[in-house]
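Subject: Sanity check before I submit

Could someone independently write out the structure tokens for this chain? I want to compare against mine line by line before I put it in a report. The sequence has 120 residues.
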Amino acid sequence: MSEHLQWMIRRNCSSFLIKRSKQMCSTEPNNLKARSSFRYNRFIHRRTVGVEPRADGKGVVVVMKQRSSQRKAATSYMRTTINKNARATLSGIRHVIRKNKYRPGLRVVAIRQACAARSL
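---
Independent answer below. Compare away.
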């Protein structure tokens, strides 16, 4: 099924959907902006990127959806921990997204999410 057809089906009937003050928000784990939109939805795209703070508060965890194990939900996400200084962390995220040929539109958003996660 095409991505656009999946988006038309999931657009208004997702369990992660929150409708508040004339805006549609989403609480999906790999949704970088928490918006319910075609661009940031994690279920319809083959390659997604997510950035989370580490449990101990030192560094970030980059979560990427693997294309090879897409049908196996338990093993479809690869988690990489980056525990370096701020500049090396942002450079590492930029490098991972570019070299693995993930969607380039998510690179800036993922870097901003990592900055917010490191400042917590």
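---
OP: Matches mine. For the report I'm noting this point. The longest strand covers residues 60-65.
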